[in-house]
């Protein structure tokens, strides 16, 4: 019965997404929703896109194992990213009226920079989208009591998200996400309230978690520990700024004010509401410690679903799994669209510049289909947990893309040579250290960031930009 109710909810979501597809008449509608989205929709998309499988299943499991120290990257780093993007990057980028971040790199630097960084951005989405597909598979497996295998669940979930994203693009993402955010917030609050009653009350749960040191998040004075803490924070806080999904939400806003504050408030909302799954996970440690001990040794991502199935009334089970499916689908749809648009606009279009708008639209849809197949295969093939897949997704953009974006927007002397050296030194440093397994005393992506900064400074000193403006002055329609 529970499985069939979830299937019915999925059908409703697909219906909403296909209705939204009727608003798509050209590529601009598909990619930016015509730049017509109001504050409520932008805030919902920012919040719900980041409030994904890793938040409910991934970081909640990590919290039980490591406390808040294990969550420096997400939710702390992720929330900082959204707030910084909203307050610092949103306004100048929105004014340029671009299709993608790759367009910015072409206008500010050159085609080579556009191509290289667009490929980095596309690759970075493999882990993030795969995490959502993995979570869908796990959810269907739990709901069907092993009747549907995890891999079969991945295929089903990927197919559902693909249908409405393929046809409706950003309009489908916006409408379905708005509904899904309502389900997420109401559903998880109701379930958390029920769990709190079983665990002895909110104050009791918080006091017990605090006594066990679960809220400690600052590093020790050990230099290696401090560097590891900083690397975890910066990987997400800075590495996820040059990402197409965040940019798309800004760019779909109906005006600058919505672009800035929808993103900023979405980041604040994400940070505070991410505490709900953490609270839920810790109540499991009080309600059923034997179950938690078992899954911590086996698969910690199963703790929350098992708690709900074994200790919640049927109504709460429906509410939780409805919210969980909403969480995953809202993130998966947005993160499927972002790399697909980047590939079509910044890779394919460069080799086929005479594409008509109609051809571009269908090329983007075919890319969505292909990328869905690729990330589903990756999700099935990899054995990483959800939190790790998401955390690793931003290493490449931290090492290669952040410095060219920030310097291009806010430093007039940033030049083509500087961007080229920033990408070359940043990515080479990161890749070599990753391949050799050197992670101490500083993690590879942090050294890649420093190398990228050095490359930008060196290249722009040797051959400074001769223009009189910066990236925010360029116009593109």
Overall CATH architecture of the largest domain: Up-down Bundle
| Helix percentage range | over 70%
CATH topology of the largest domain: Sodium/glucose cotransporter
Say which CATH homologous superfamily of the largest domain is assigned: Sodium/glucose cotransporter
Order of helices and strands: HHHHHHHHHHHHHHHHHHHHHH
Report the principal-axis shape: globular
Main β sheet profile: none
Average of pLDDT: 87
- As residue ranges, the low-confidence spans are 468-477
Termini separation: 51 Å
State the secondary-structure class. Answer: mainly alpha
SS strand fraction? under 5%
Rg, nearest Å:
22 Å
Total discrete domains: 2
CATH class of the largest domain: Mainly Alpha
Number of beta strands: 0
- Give the helix tally: 22
Notable traits:
about 475 residues, mainly alpha, 22 helices
How would you characterize this protein structure?
The structure is a single chain. This protein is mainly alpha-helical and 477 residues long. The protein folds into two domains: 2-392, Up-down Bundle (Sodium/glucose cotransporter); 394-477, no CATH class. Helix content is 78%, strand content 0%. It is built from 22 helices and no strands. It has helices at residues 2-20, 27-32, 39-50, 53-66, 72-95, 101-108, 111-143, 150-199, 202-211, 223-237, 244-251, 256-273, 275-287, 289-297, 303-311, 314-351, 357-381, 386-392, 395-400, 402-410, 416-436, 444-462. Helix 4 crosses helix 13.
Furnish the topology, listing elements before pairings.
Layout: H1 2-20, H2 27-32, H3 39-50, H4 53-66, H5 72-95, H6 101-108, H7 111-143, H8 150-199, H9 202-211, H10 223-237, H11 244-251, H12 256-273, H13 275-287, H14 289-297, H15 303-311, H16 314-351, H17 357-381, H18 386-392, H19 395-400, H20 402-410, H21 416-436, H22 444-462
Helix pairs in contact: 1-8, 1-16, 3-8, 3-11, 3-12, 3-16, 4-13, 4-18, 5-10, 5-11, 5-12, 6-7, 7-8, 7-16, 7-17, 7-18, 7-21, 8-13, 8-16, 8-17, 11-12, 13-14, 13-15, 16-17, 20-22, 21-22
